[in-house]
UniProtKB/TrEMBL annotation:
Pfam families xref list: Fer2_BFD, NIR_SIR, NIR_SIR_ferr, Pyr_redox_2, Rubredoxin_C
Native organism taxonomy: Bacteria, Bacillati, Bacillota, Bacilli, Bacillales
Name of the protein this chain belongs to: Nitrite reductase (NADH) large subunit
Domain FAD/NAD(P)-binding stretches: 6-282
PROSITE patterns linked: NIR_SIR
Ranges annotated as spanning the membrane: none
Ranges where the Nitrite/sulphite reductase 4Fe-4S domain occurs: 631-767
Residue ranges of domain BFD-like [2Fe-2S]-binding in the record: 422-470, 486-535
Cofactor mode of binding and number, as noted: Binds 1 siroheme per subunit.
KW ATP-binding (keyword) present: no
Nitrite/Sulfite reductase ferredoxin-like domain ranges (all copies): 561-623
Cofactor entry: siroheme; [2Fe-2S] cluster; [4Fe-4S] cluster; FAD
Family: Belongs to the nitrite and sulfite reductase 4Fe-4S domain family.
């Protein structure tokens, strides 16, 4: 007779499945396990939904345990089939689809649901929460049809939703009931700094606003506030909090309050039924952070596996987050009160704020903004209750109170960190777990630790601390870090993929994936565009560009704007145009009612607000080549007037710029490429912050490379000085082809030069025969490229992609 017990898990989320993982490790054959999930997906990382919405991650990328994991571990799973009834007498559950499953032990892990404010109109179409993959899909679909989004709630969830909607091209306003953002996690100065940062990214805010009504007939049209002001909105996202899912528990006779009431060992009031995760309430607290839920899961797993455990005593929580690219941290009692003292520093220039709250000589709370590297050590002091009298400035500033010397070393900080410190908040991995992986399981690289413990496997924010702990535990035995693949679909890096394509003569994206054994047969949004580029770079005369492997901008050869329209930038060589061209552009703009015509920073005209169905007609009537203002290609060659008109000019920068741009027209690259030619060292064309800048000096030209004028400004470095125009062309074309052949996909020249070093590039291009061979390969490639606008104009099949009924596409970033 079998002694295997039956274990049923109600809920397929993070806390419940983490509990199952522990049980499988502690007692692999003790239970026959059945899992019921409300969503039709395998176990995934809900924390990463904001990254999916923002477009940086696919749904496949956030899956923690795929379908093969269930099969490999003998776990029976019923996705998309929630439990609707529990018979606690017969010890049986019944699912929505009529599945009956008996149990010896039952784990309630039903999680929580988004709280929808009980406002008039809250049931209208277009009003949703932000809690699961379906919500993400709803927002993505709405962004293809609607323009104005309102997010109610200025906490973390609301800001994550707003960031994602902004990336999807929507006009986003965040409404918050209080006076500053994230007031449950940040104090006023940090909240104001965050608001300034997010406003620069394009978010709008209405603070101290109370929503009174959601208006509209069938679908939401606007929000009306208690002060009677109105905000138009086509989509309303409620992000005002979560509520534990306890309806099933209540109907089954379990004691509930805010959540399902449990003791220190996660027992409910009914024998054989436990609860864990966001649906559970322990000592009056229902936790919404992953670390406490994983701690609960470990206690429950040990009890069910028959292992010794001290029980769960509750958690002191901290929050370390990256909000729309900004690092923030808070822990404990971070707001001031009459019985506390604070020490703080605020640097508005660099966007850094640090605050410690002290009570009776002990650290009781902290807030960090912009620089959160000290978060773990501050949290340790809060939990330990250690007296820090006299050391406050040393702890906050990293400088001893005496004013000289340095703070504790990395090794000392790692040694002082308690074993139960949560290092990876996304996956609840402690310092002790990482130490065990290094000391007892042979994990001597960050990659091995990631595979063994999942630390740094999600958002990656904890990777620096994981690296420090690896060095602390392994010492001289730290292994050589294995190369990470270009994405989660493969372990091959860029250089290995390029080498395999050349060696084996692989000619299509699908062929590369099949031959090189992609884990995901269809690839993902990271690898498909990169493979498409590498294949085109290696086989320029044979490879047929795969449209399906590109983002929206490159599929439609126009830049999608926040309102869903597109911009058209025709090629204007060297920034020099003619009255006839200007008349042509003006005529088209008037005929198609283009809302705005603007000069770009690269001396071109941008027609903004064009409807997608009008793109081919506008291109046809302009009868000008594409300016590739949307693509990973040559964008512009900016010029000054040089010695043609300027009294300071030493060379003909206009003629040189036009010559370079006409030669490099239609050149695709790993990332966008911008050039400039300045006719004298006064550098009016800003050549020294371009990917390649040509600067005229008396009797010669300087070539500067690796510059960037974007978010991360980088001054270009001097590659060479040449005397003739022909040499300028030779070095320019050779340099750009060398970049094309050796950079990673989506890697700008500035990042590439920083990675490989200018000396490496100089050495590679020193031999003239090498340069000429590079120029020849570039010419071959350019000889087989066509103007995409002209190609679409002449191909009726391609033109059909621009009809109003064509499908929604992912927005490019």
């Amino acid at each position: 007779m079998s002694t295997t017990k039956k274990l049923v898990l109600v809920g397929n989320g993070m806390a419940g499945i983490r509990t199952i993982e522990h049980i499988l490790k502690l007692a692999p054959h003790a239970y026959d396990i059945t899992v019921f999930g409300a969503e039709p997906h395998p176990n995934y990382n809900r924390i990463m939904l904001s990254s999916v919405l923002a477009g940086g991650t696919s749904i496949e990328d956030i899956v923690i345990n795929d379908w093969s994991w269930y099969e490999d571990n003998g776990v029976h799973v019923y996705p998309g089939d929630p439990v609707v009834q529990i018979d606690t007498v017969r010890k049986e559950v019944v699912s929505q689809n009529g599945v009956h499953a008996s149990y010896d032990e039952l784990i309630m892990a039903t999680g929580s649901q988004a709280f929808i404010l009980p406002l008039p109109g809250a049931n209208k179409e277009g009003v949703i929460g932000f809690r699961d993959i379906k919500d993400c899909e709803t927002m993505m679909a709405a962004s293809q049809k609607y323009r104005k989004a309102a997010v109610i709630g200025g906490g973390l969830l609301g800001l994550e939703a707003a960031r994602g909607l902004l990336n999807l091209g929507m006009d986003v306003t965040v409404i918050h009931i209080n006076g500053h953002l994230m007031d449950r996690n940040l104090d006023l100065p940090a909240g104001l700094m965050l608001q300034r940062e997010l406003e620069e990214q394009g978010m709008k805010f209405l603070l101290n606003k109370h929503t009174e009504e959601i208006t509209g007939k069938g679908r939401v049209k606007a929000l009306r506030f208690t002060d009677q002001t109105v905000l138009e909105a086509d989509l309303v996202v409620m992000a005002v909090g979560i509520r534990p899912q306890i309806e099933l528990a209540r109907n089954s006779g379990l004691d509930v309050n805010r959540g399902v009431i449990v003791d220190d060992y996660m027992h409910t009031n009914i024998p054989g039924i436990s609860a864990v995760g966001e649906c559970a309430e322990h000592r009056g607290i229902a936790y919404g952070l992953v670390a406490p839920l994983y701690e609960q899961g470990m206690v429950l797993a040990k009890r069910l596996a028959g292992a010794a455990t001290e029980g769960y005593a509750g958690s002191v929580t901290s929050t370390k987050l990256k909000v729309s690219g900004v690092d923030v941290f808070s822990a404990g009692q971070f707001k001031d009160s009459p019985d506390t003292r604070s020490i703080r520093i605020q640097d508005d220039v660099d966007g850094v704020y640090k605050k410690m709250v002290i009570k009776d000589g002990k650290l009781v709370g902290a807030v960090l903004f912009g620089d959160t590297t000290d978060g773990a050590s501050l949290f340790s002091l809060i939990k330990s209750g250690e007296d820090i009298s006299g050391r406050e400035k040393e702890i906050l500033l990293g400088v001893p109170s005496g004013g000289s010397g340095s703070g504790p070393s990395v090794a000392e900080r790692m040694a002082a960190m308690p074993d139960d410190e949560i290092i990876c908040g996304c996956n609840g991995v402690t310092k002790a777990a990482i130490g065990d992986a290094v000391l007892n399981k042979g994990c001597n690289t960050v990659g091995a630790i990631k595979s063994c413990t999942k630390a740094s496997a999600s958002c990656g924010g904890c990777k620096p601390i994981v690296e420090s702990l690896l060095t602390y535990y392994a010492g001289d035995n730290v292994g050589e870090q294995t190369k990470e693949g270009i994405c989660g679909c493969t372990s091959y890096d860029r250089d290995e993929i390029v080498a395999q394509i050349k060696e084996m003569g692989l000619k299509t994206v699908k062929e590369v994936m099949n031959v090189l054994g992609w884990d995901e047969p269809e690839g993902c949004s990271k690898c498909r565009p990169s493979l498409n580029y590498y294949l085109g770079m290696i086989w320029p005369t044979e490879y047929e560009d795969e449209r399906v492997s590109k983002f929206t901008n490159e599929r439609y050869h126009a830049n999608i704007q926040k309102d869903g329209t597109y911009s058209v930038i025709p090629r204007i060589y060297g920034g020099v145009t003619s009255p006839a061209e200007l008349i042509k552009i003006a005529t088209v703009a008037e005929k198609y009612d283009v809302p705005m015509v603007k000069f770009t920073g690269g001396q071109r005209l941008d027609l903004l607000g064009v409807q997608k169905e009008n793109l081919p007609k506008i291109w046809e009537e302009l009868d000008m080549p594409s300016g590739f203002g949307y693509g990973k290609a040559l964008r512009t060659v900016k010029t000054c007037v040089g010695n043609t008109f300027c009294r300071f000019g030493t060379q003909d920068s206009i003629e040189m710029g036009i010559r370079l741009e006409k030669k490099l027209d239609k050149m695709v690259a790993p990332a966008k490429v911008k050039l400039a030619v300045s006719g004298c060292p006064r550098n009016c064309a800003e050549a020294t912050i371009k990917d390649l800048g040509v600067v005229a000096i008396d009797g010669a030209w300087e070539l500067h490379v690796g510059g960037n004028g974007g978010v991360k400004v980088r001054a270009a470095e001097l590659l060479c000085t040449v005397k003739t125009d022909a040499e300028v062309e030779e070095w320019t074309y050779a340099y750009l082809q060398y970049y094309r052949e050796n950079a990673r996909w989506n890697e700008r020249t500035a990042a590439w030069i920083e990675r490989v070093g200018l000396d490496h590039v100089k050495e590679a291009l020193a031999d003239r025969d090498v340069r000429l061979a590079l120029v020849e390969r570039l010419e071959v490639t350019l000889g087989h490229t066509v103007d995409p606008w002209k190609e679409i104009i002449e191909d009726e099949k391609l033109r059909k992609n621009f009809t109003p009924l064509s499908g929604a596409e992912p927005v490019a970033h």
